[in-house]
Every structure is written in structure tokens, then in C-alpha cells.
Design goal:
seven-stranded mixed β-sheet; 10 strands; globular; about 375 residues; 13 helices; alpha/beta
Length: about 375
């Protein structure tokens, strides 16, 4: 039986040609391709005065953005518990303490009511997660941050291509891993309007070697250099960047396909009483996943039914406050309600129109 996959990258001859180009030049490490990818991304975002630093992953992007924006060991960072553990690990990697916050039931966005309860004299930043591409409340995050003198670092791993990101004043981190909206095989990026922050990130991603990015982009290496703070080996190499450039070139098709599939789902499921969808704007957002809330305790039965009928699904994500390393001993009830009822169904460019129809028909059949 054929299985319709939950997620998949769309790779073809364009990516193969890009990789062969790097092989032919015998320049695998960070250099020209990475430089061009950063420039093309900055142009893509169409954000005046914006800067892009490409790194090894979104986890690395978050870690470097926090560290280089002044988050230090002992600081506390507010973060929604419903996110992949990478968000929490990025915070703890800089020595800060991730403070799990509850979510709003309608969109799985961080609850500002709960975030206010978690504020202490040690709170220095907030990391909102644009879960499934939902960003309708992001302006409230910036207002909350301004009122409480907090840094904002957005986890936009699910949101590459969202039109609203060009209007942001904070720091935004993206994922380019194997199944995201565009892929580099592995990769991530930091988008910021702060030139000083951008320069610090570029140094920190290369072991803290001052000015090494400029040297490598010029085809050179820094031999006589200085290091003034902790750095990491978290840069993006030319191979990954070349794949990313090929993906970015065909992103208009990827965007259209993802939005069309999401729109079909939203239209097909709107009348199913036990199935609730998140408020994803399928015209401006480019959703990475399509989660539904399955009510009346039927989530696991639906998951099993779909698998029996050849449709792979996922549960994204286990709340981080349930993990031993990040458990601070308090309850987050909304997160638990969502965790017990959320189910992600397939959403990726390789889905055919017939695949989408089959998924819709299978779900409707379950609820008959």
C-alpha cells in the first residue's frame, strides 16, 4: 500500500545542478554560494535595511540571535511550551533559562496572559513561535516586549515566505531543514535590521573570529585574527547554500502549492463539527504544517484510521514543560488540551490534487 507522506521536500534537477556547480568549483566550505544566498534572501524579504546571516540550522539561528543580542547565562526567556524542543535547546545553549508559557487555544500562540504571570526580574527576552504559520497576534508580542523591556527573537521555522514578516522590527529566525518551506538539506537564517547584531552573528557563527566572514566571501582565510567572545562552528557551507538558492528560485511555485492545499483543507473541513482548524491565512502565510484539533477524544482513532488507509500524520509537538530537563513544576492546561487533540495532516508540494482529495475524503469518511 502506498503511503502519502506527512512532509517532503521538492527536489529536482535545479538542486542537482547547483550541487554539481559547487563540486566543479571544489569550494565546499562557506564562500561565494553562501554570500549570494544571503544577498538573494535579503532581496526576497524586500525589507529596507535588512541583513541576513545563514547558519547551520534554525536552532543555531535562535542561539546566535539570543547570544549576540545580549542574552546571558542566568537570564530568563519566555517561550511557548508547544514548540519543537529545538526552541528550548537554543535558549539553554546560551546559558539562559527557558520559561515555558501556556498557549491560546485558538491558534497555539504564546498566551500573553500566562507570559505576564511568568515575568520576573530576570526576564530578558521572549521567543514567540509562529506555529503552523500563524502570526496574527505578533504585534501584541512586540507591544508586550516594549512594555517590559524585553528582546524579541521570533522562531519562524514554520513561516518562511509569510508576507507580514517584512514589516517586523525584531529579529526573525528561519529553518531550511529537509522538509521546511525551502530546504538547504540543513540550514537556517537570521533576519534583522540591526547591522551591529548582524555583524556579531556573522563572527559568532565562525568561532568568534573577527571579520572572518568577509575574508571567506573574498575567497581568503583569516590567519592573523582576534576573538573577543564565545563563538561556534555554526556557519552554512556552499553546498547547502547552493541548494537553498535553487529552492528560493522556485519558491513562487512552492508557495502557490502550499497555499492551495491549505485552502482546500480549510474549505473542505469547515463544516465538520469535531474538527477545528487554526486561523491560518492561506493568502499571506505559507504554512509548513497543517494541524487540526480533533475534539471529543477522537484524535488517536483518526490517526490510526488514516494510517490504515495510507495517510501518514503527526503530533506536533509534545509540550516542553513535560520534558524532564525543562520541567519547572507547574501546569499549563491549554497546552495539555491541545497536545491531547492536535493532529497534523500531509502538506507539501509533492501532494497531487488526487492525493489531497483522497485525504479529504478519508477524513470525511471517518466522521460520517
Amino acid at each position: 500500500m502506498r503511503i502519502i507522506k506527512l512532509s517532503s521536500a521538492w527536489l529536482g534537477p535545479e538542486e542537482e545542478q547547483a550541487v554539481n556547480r559547487v563540486f566543479a568549483n571544489q569550494a565546499l566550505n562557506m564562500g561565494f554560494e553562501t554570500k549570494m544566498f544571503e544577498e538573494e534572501l535579503a532581496s526576497f524579504f524586500n525589507k529596507k535595511g535588512s541583513f541576513v546571516s545563514c547558519v547551520h540550522s534554525c536552532t543555531a539561528a535562535l542561539q546566535l540571535a539570543l547570544q549576540c543580542d545580549g542574552i546571558k547565562p542566568g537570564d530568563e526567556v519566555l517561550v511557548p511550551t508547544c514548540t519543537f524542543v529545538a526552541t528550548f535547546q537554543a535558549i539553554s545553549a546560551v546559558g539562559a533559562k527557558p520559561i515555558p508559557c501556556d498557549i491560546d487555544l485558538d491558534d497555539v500562540f504564546i498566551s500573553l496572559c500566562d507570559a505576564k504571570v511568568r515575568l520576573t526580574s530576570k526576564t530578558r527576552a521572549i521567543v514567540p513561535v509562529l506555529f503552523a504559520g500563524c502570526s496574527t497576534k505578533i504585534h501584541k508580542i512586540y507591544q508586550f516586549a516594549e512594555e517590559n523591556n524585553l528582546k524579541v527573537v521570533e522562531d519562524a521555522a514554520h513561516s518562511f515566505g509569510d508576507d507580514s514578516i517584512a514589516d517586523r522590527l525584531g529579529t526573525v529566525c528561519f529553518s531550511f531543514d529537509a522538509i521546511k518551506n525551502i530546504t538547504c538539506s540543513d540550514g537556517g537564517a537570521v533576519l534583522t535590521t540591526d547591522i551591529t547584531l548582524n555583524e556579531r552573528i556573522k563572527d559568532a557563527r565562525l568561532l568568534g573570529v573577527l571579520g572572518d566572514t568577509a575574508a571567506r566571501f573574498a575567497g581568503k582565510r583569516s590567519w592573523d585574527f582576534d576573538v573577543v567572545e564565545q563563538g561556534w562552528r555554526l556557519h552554512m557551507n556552499n553546498l547547502c547554500a547552493a541548494i537553498g538558492r535553487a529552492q528560493l528560485a522556485k519558491f513562487p511555485q512552492i508557495r502557490t502549492r502550499r497555499q492551495d492545499i491549505a485552502a482546500r483543507y480549510m474549505n473542505a473541513f469547515r463544516d465538520i463539527k469535531c474538527l477545528r482548524m487554526l486561523p491560518i491565512n492561506a493568502k499571506t502565510a505559507v504554512p509548513h504544517i497543517f494541524p487540526v484539533i480533533v475534539e471529543d477524544g477522537m484524535r488517536d482513532a483518526l490517526k490510526e484510521f488514516l494510517l490504515e488507509n495510507g495517510v501518514e500524520t503527526g503530533i506536533q509537538y509534545k509540550p516542553n514543560h513535560l520534558l524532564s530537563y525543562f520541567n519547572l513544576g507547574y501546569q499549563l492546561p491549554n497546552a495539555m488540551k491541545v497536545y491531547e487533540s492536535i493532529l497534523s495532516i500531509p502538506l507539501h508540494p509533492l501532494l497531487s490534487a488526487d492525493d489531497v482529495s483522497y485525504i479529504i475524503d478519508s477524513i470525511k469518511k471517518f466522521f460520517k
